[in-house]
C-alpha cells in the first residue's frame, strides 16, 4: 500500500503447475517495481514484477510469475524452508538442496544464476531467516545464529571467479576457480565456456527488461514495440546460433499481438531448435500459419522421442484423462440404447467381421488405450485446432513418413471412439478437438497417403476400423437429415394454422 487512500489487490497465477504451493516469499522495491520472489513446493524460485503505480488501482489485477532459479532446494522438503533478499542481485535460501542431504544456507546470484556460497546446518532450523545490517539471522537448533555476510558488486568477473580481492603481499592463496585468462589444456573450451556465460547473462538481462515492459503496458505504441523487439531478437538469433532467448519469446507471444506474417522467422528458428513448447504456443496464438509450416510442426511432433517429451513443458489443457474404467462400465450398460454412430460390435460387412474377429482382445486393447503419450497428444491437438486450406495442405502431408501417418491415424481413431462414448459426441477437457476436426483430418491423411498406408501390413486392421467409422458416420448423418426434413414439415404446418386459440393434440410419426 503506497498510498494510504488506495488499496490495490492482485491475483497471482501459478501457471501450468496449479498444485504447487508457495512455501516462502520475499520482496524488494526499486523506483518502478516491486520484485516479489517466491519459493515454491517444487523447489524452484519464481519472480513476479508489480508496478508501483498500477494502471487501474481499484481493480483486482492478475499477475503471472516467471522462473528465476530452478531446483534450488529439494521438492520433497517440507520443513525449514525460507527465502530472503539480500540486495537486487543476491538472495539467501534455507533448505535441503537434495532429498537426502541436510539443511543448508545458500546464497545465490540471481543475475548470473550462480551459487555464491553454502553452509551446512547439521542441527536443523525452524525455517526462519532474516537479513539486516549485512548480517544473516536464523534459528539453528536452539540457538540464534548470526552470520556476517556482505554482498559483493554483482559482475561477470565475480560470478566467474576473476574478481581480484585485496590480499597481504606475502600471502599465497590457492584460487577456488579456474583462471580464464591463462587456461590450461584446450584454450578453445575455456573460451567457449566464457562466451556461453556471457550469452546467458545477456539473455537474462533481456528477459528482465521484457518483463518490466510487459508489467507496465502504458506506452501508446505497445504493439509496435513488441513487433520491433521480436524482430531484433530473431535477427540476433540468426547472427548468433547459440543465442536463443526462448523465455522472452514466449512472453512476447502471449501478449496476443503477434502473428506469423509479422515474424515468420520465429517459427523457422523454433523448428530448427525443435522447440515443441514454443511451436505449440505459436499454433495456439497465430491465425495465419502457412500449411507448409503446420506440416513441419506435425513432423516434429510425431518424430520426437518420448524421453525428450518427458523433459518438455507443454500445455495440457486440451488433453483429458485417459482412464477408461468408468466409461467402459457405462458403455456396457448403454450398448443397446445408446447409438452414436459407431460401435465396435456393429458392422454389416462380413469381410470386416472375419478380419476383426480373429483377435478380439487386440481390438479391445486398441479401442481403450491411447497410442501416444499425453504430451504428444497435446501437441497433436494443437495441429487439429490449426486453420488450413485443403488444397495447400495435401501436398505437404505426402512428405510425412508412413509410420508417422499411421500413428496419427491411430490417435484420431482413439479420439473418435472417445467421442462415441457419450450422447453429445464431444470430448472432455478445456479445449479438446471437435468431432468435425477429427473426421476432417482422418480424411486428409487418407487422401494424401492411402496408397502408401494400404501397403503396410500393420495398418490393415486400422484401415478396416476406419472404414467402419466412415460408414457409421454416413448412416448417422442420413438419419439426421431425415429428422431435419420432418421437423421442417412440422414447422410449415404450424405456420399455416389460423386457429391458434383451439386446443388440439397432434402426433408426428417418424419413419
Q: Layout of helices and strands, plus pairs?
A:
Blueprint: E1 10-13, E2 22-29, E3 33-40, E4 45-51, E5 61-64, E6 66-69, E7 82-85, E8 90-95, E9 104-109, E10 114-120, E11 125-132, E12 135-140, E13 143-148, H1 156-160, H2 187-216, H3 222-239, H4 246-253, H5 264-273, H6 276-285, H7 291-303, H8 306-310, H9 325-334, H10 350-356, H11 360-368, H12 374-385, H13 390-397, H14 402-419, H15 435-453, H16 460-495
Parallel strand pairs: 1-5
Antiparallel strand pairs: 2-3, 3-4, 4-6, 7-8, 8-9, 9-10, 11-12, 12-13
Helix pairs in contact: 2-4, 4-6, 6-7, 6-12, 7-12, 13-15, 14-15, 14-16
Give the overall silhouette: elongated
Low-confidence stretches: 162-197, 324-350, 355-364
Q: Output the structural class.
A: alpha+beta
N- to C-terminal distance: 71 Å
Biggest sheet descriptor: 4 strands, antiparallel
Strand content: 15-25%
Strand arrangement across the biggest beta sheet: 2-3-4-6
Number of helices: 16
Order of helices and strands: EEEEEEEEEEEEEHHHHHHHHHHHHHHHH
Mean pLDDT: 77
Write down how many β-strands occur, each being a DSSP E stretch of 2 or more residues.
Answer: 13
